[in-house]
Structures are given as C-alpha cells and as structure tokens.
Predict the structure.
Amino acid sequence: MTYKEILRRIQFRLQGRVVHLRPKTTPKGRVLISYTTLPFLDTRERTLNAHSNRWECKQMAQEFLDRGYAVDVIDFDNTRFVPKYSYDFCIDNRFNLARLAPLLNSDCKKIYHATNAHWLHLNQAEYARLHDVQKRRGVTLMPRRSIAPCLGVESADIISSVCGKDANQSYDFAHKNIHLLPLSTTHQFESPRDKNFDQARNQFIWFGGAGAVHKGLDLVLEAFAAMPQFRLLVCGKFGEPDFQAAYHTELYETPNIKSMGYIDPQSAKFEKIRNESLGIVYPSSSEGCATSVVVAMHAGLIPVVSRETGVETKEFGITLSQNTVEEIQKQVRLLATEPVERLQERATATQHYASTHHTRAQFAEAYRAFVDVVEKEHQTQV
C-alpha cells in the first residue's frame, strides 16, 4: 500500500468513514452516493478489477464531478452516517435510503441503484434452492447470499438498474420508473487463437462467487457427476464448509470434475481454461446480472445459464427452461453434439455480444444519459 493510500484511509476514518470528492471548480451542488468506498481508498487496478461494482461506483461519482457537483461517498452498510449538508441527489445501493430519506432535504432526488433483485425475491429464491438440496441430499445447508430487509426501493423517486429482466420484474410492485444500464465488465479478451472446438466440446466450467447453492453449483456437480464423458472445471469461491462436506465426493473424488478454486481471469491458467473449454454452465437462482457469466462471455465461452442470471443468451447461448439436473444434462449434451462450425459461430457471437453490450465505455455512456434525465427533472422541480 502506498503512502497516499495510507493517508486516504486515515482521512476516511477521521471524516466519519466518508470519502469527500470535490470538482475542479466551485461546486454547483452536492451528491451523496451510498455504495462502496473501496475504489476511492485503494486505486490499484487489481482492486477495480475484482468486481464490476467498484469501477462502476467510481464512474458514477466521476460523472457528477465532471458536471460540477461535490460528491460524498459512503458504504451501503454504513448505518451511522448522518447528512450534514443539503444534497441535490442521493443514490443508494441497498440499506441506507429508507433510513436517510427523512433526514434529507425535501428537494433531494432519491435514486435506488439496483444491482440485485428485491430482497424478498432473492431470499425466497435462495431458500427454495436450499430446500431442494435438503430434499435431494438429506442435508441442511446455510444461506450465504440472503439480504437483510430494507425499504430502499419504496423510498426512491426513481430506480437505476444494471439488472436483467428477472430481477427488474421483482420491483414492478413499487411502480417506479426503472432506467436500465448495461453491466460493465472487469475483463476483456482477444479472440481465442486456433481454438480446437472439437477437443473443447466436452469441457465446461462453473465460474462464480460465494453462495454455491444460490449460484447452482450443486445442480451442476450432480449433472456432470452422472455424465463421465464430459469434464467440468469448478472455478471460483465454493469454500463453504457445509457445502464442501455435502458435495465432497463430487468436488474431490469424481474423475471428470476438477475443483480449481479461485482463478484470476487475467492469469495464464484462465487463458488455458478458456481455450480448452466450450462454455460456462451457471444455473443461478437470482442475480442482478451475473458478472462472472459476462466475463466468461467476453472470454468466448458459450453461456448455458438460468433466466435468473439476468444475461441475454440470444441465438448464441442457451437459457435453461428449468433449473434441474436433467435440463442441464440435456442442454450440455445437445450443445456438445453440434458441428464444429456452429460451435465456433456461437462462441464468436457470444464474445461479440459481450463486447458490444457489457463494457465500461457502454456503462459510462448509459449512466451519463441517466444523469441527464435526473438532472433535468431536478432542475424543473427546484
């Protein structure tokens, strides 16, 4: 950590865990962003590339700075922050908007920034998957992705969202305008050189973060354990002790399944994996828009995913009709039997879609347009 980064962290604590950003000119107003302070405290590239939300939050702040606003940034779970200023806009990602709404000036435009489905929808989805595991395996596993109740959406004037259709529909009840934004990505790749699709057709990956059952790893393991002709590489965070105990045989004792652990997408190991694999299988129970799937698509891996991932598969990928072991097996088998030419077409179209719909430049452009809208609305109300 550099001296400047240490100084930033000291100032952060002294200032009540608030990052204060000022424009180059005299501020014309003030914006509060309740999301993540990390990208302002640790500016290393590897920090920004660890999750798409870090760069996106930084870009959101930059858009307001460029327009002449001072910007205060707090973490979405900072429950102690109390506003000391009047704000033109308050943007919250999860827990703070309902708490802060009564404390904000009456003309503050309140924006809920959705990156996942409504907590009732998301929690119900995870518990349903855990119940299914209990019935299939006779074991009770703990929830890992559940969200505490909050009324952020209900307190908002408008919603900005990087989510897909499934998550966005969970907010329909609130009857709020939803401004759609494209999820960005943490990594982009060159097209695979000389990829042998005939050899790659029988190898797939699961690539995800914490919450193995929530993200469908249990279903994928059971599906591939019964298909020894196919190879599965398990990449990501699946280290929950109870899950590992329940699926120890599949994870560590099944010849056609290899547990890789966390893989850096920028590493030579990931490059080898993407060149030797056909697609990503990811039947998640609920996502805003699955970052890991978007990264895999940038890498040219054909998506075999649930509707709940929030990722569009168009003509190049496969959206599972139901999230079952049998449906996963069916779609993997069908995809693997397609001609090499068709597989190459799918992979090329997958990467093209990702590079034209999920980039930082596209997020920045879309967020700029969103700020145009809310700024104009705010000016007419003041």
About this structure: The mean pLDDT is 95. The radius of gyration is 22 Å.
